[in-house]
Amino acid sequence: MNGAWSSAAVRRAEAELMPQLPPGTLMQRAAAGLAAACARMLKTLRSDQGGQGVYGSTVIVLAGPGDNGGDALYAAARLARRGARVFAVPVMRSRVHPLAAAALTQAGGRLTSEPPPSCDLLLDGILGIGGRPGLPDRAVELLGRIKSRITVAVDVPSGVDVDTGSVPASAVAADHTVTFGVRKPCHVLGAAALLSGRVHLVDIGLSGHLDPHPMVRIAEAGDLVEWWHTPGPDDDKYTRGVAGIAAGSAKYPGAAVLAVSGALAGPTGYVRYAGSAADQVRRRYAEAVCTDTVKEAGRVQAWLVGPGIGADESALSAVRDVLAGAAPAVIDADALTLIGEYPSILAGCEAPVVLTPHDREFERLYGSAPSLDRAGSAAALAKRLNCTVLLKGHHTVVADADGTVWANPTGRPALATAGSGDVLAGLLTSLMASGMDGVRAAVAAAYLHGKAGGIASAGHRTITSTDVARALPLAIGQVLSGGAGQAGS
Ligand SMILES: NC(=O)C1=CN([C@@H]2O[C@H](COP(=O)(O)OP(=O)(O)OC[C@H]3O[C@@H](n4cnc5c(N)ncnc54)[C@H](O)[C@@H]3O)[C@@H](O)[C@H]2O)[C@@H](O)CC1
Ligand SMILES: Nc1ncnc2c1ncn2[C@@H]1O[C@H](COP(=O)(O)OP(=O)(O)O)[C@@H](O)[C@H]1O
Ligand SMILES: [K+]
């Protein structure tokens, strides 16, 4: 498992480590890593100019008053020594890290209030983990008029809310972020994750001093490998788990077909379908065993209820029947709306439940839309309803009732296509039926669904939900065989 640590946790680790080192060591480690990363970027950026990298490049530093500006100025001094033309602009009056500013001028860089109009690389050293959301006016003005070929955020994109990833006011949009020690929540959550661009981690020796539990967990392929139930020689189709899908209706048969397609791609050995779209499901998937109602279906190890079931009496019965049983349940789509209307259905339920709302469904359940702090909102709903919550959207988050939060690192906007949530819910149900607990199943389902979306839409292909379902087996195969770095992340 990977993770992102809060600014307070980083400061605690720093306070423990700092006294063991000569003064300034951590900042020098950060600056050295930052300068090396910038040099690599300049080399790639300027590969069309006879292989020139740092030498002869133009670098502008926007330097804030704190240590973030210090990192940026020391790194810029290293670039200046290698032949870059460096202009550093103090963005808050003339308050800048004095030693770092002196190092830059000694290396030939210039402190100025009038930078050139364009540069190869813009270093955002305005605010780091000490920053409050929003940018000073001078920074906004400078960012508006300097044209840079590449923008690199130092530690975090300035202006974002570091611990929630929300962006309530102006902030830097970076192509790359070079961060120190560990990732911060803003690199993986909310609108700030987009503003971070590609995140590069520089080791400054903090890891042994950090709280073992990150603020936000980030799934990686190795987690799924560890959690996966690979069938053994003694397994049969029942021991691998039976997934039950209560989805679709005469009006929305497609939701049934798509949810079943997601479940069939998962690790279970058997998929039962219960609902009024049985004919369509049978026609499309000979493998699915169909009945008309949840009550008529045999035993399952996990149920999905909701996609396309509508809001009539039979839909309500399906939700009640699923939640009255002992099997873990995934509640999606129309079933979320019904629970919003009749919260008592969920109150008596003892089996583990995963809710998979998008923003509008979240609002129906919680009474207000998710805030800019999406992880905080998901955790609040999970706690209130004592369930696991998978809050969909760009940068899907999974929260458990105990406050544990995961950020999903895969996925792309092409997944915003009708029915793609049905495929996700079906897959999630299969994972739960195979024995994975609700949080892990939700994390794994979001990860694989995102990866399948990447595989299906590679090369800018347009995709439908069926394409996502078809790509799931390959996504699963790549992840389980350790090929996580391949196309489609
Ligand atoms: N903590 C660590 O372990 C390390 C931190 N380092 C660097 O230090 C940074 C943190 O430095 P600081 O604590 O000095 O904090 P910052 O550099 O983030 O700046 C804080 C200063 O900016 C002002 N400020 C905050 N938000 C503002 C806003 N929205 N508008 C205007 N002014 C605002 C504050 O009043 C304060 O003076 C990190 O992000 C990182 O770059 C590195 O040097 C290495 C190690
Ligand atoms: N902008 C986006 N970027 C990445 N993924 C997205 C985006 N918008 C939606 N998704 C994903 O697409 C899926 C859509 O699910 P959902 O809203 O339930 O649609 P439907 O009801 O049509 O199935 C979810 O997995 C969601 O996380
Ligand atoms: K910054």
Automatic annotation (TrEMBL):
EC code(s) of this entry: 4.2.1.136, 5.1.99.6
Ranges that cross the membrane: none
Domain YjeF C-terminal, residue spans: 220-479
Entry keywords, A to Z: ATP-binding, Isomerase, Lyase, Metal-binding, Multifunctional enzyme, NAD, NADP, Nucleotide-binding, Potassium
InterPro entries: Carbohydrate_kinase_pred_CS, CARKD, Nnr, Ribokinase-like, YjeF_N_dom, YjeF_N_dom_sf
Cofactor(s), names only, from the UniProt record: Mg(2+); K(+)
Record-listed AMP binding positions: 392-396, 421
Pfam families: Carb_kinase, YjeF_N
Claim: Protein biosynthesis is one of the keywords in the record: no
Residues at which (6S)-NADPHX binds: 67-71, 155, 308, 358, 422
Binding of K(+), residues: 68, 124, 158
Complexes and interactors: Homotetramer.
Family, as annotated: Belongs to the NnrD/CARKD family.
Name the record gives this protein: Bifunctional NAD(P)H-hydrate repair enzyme
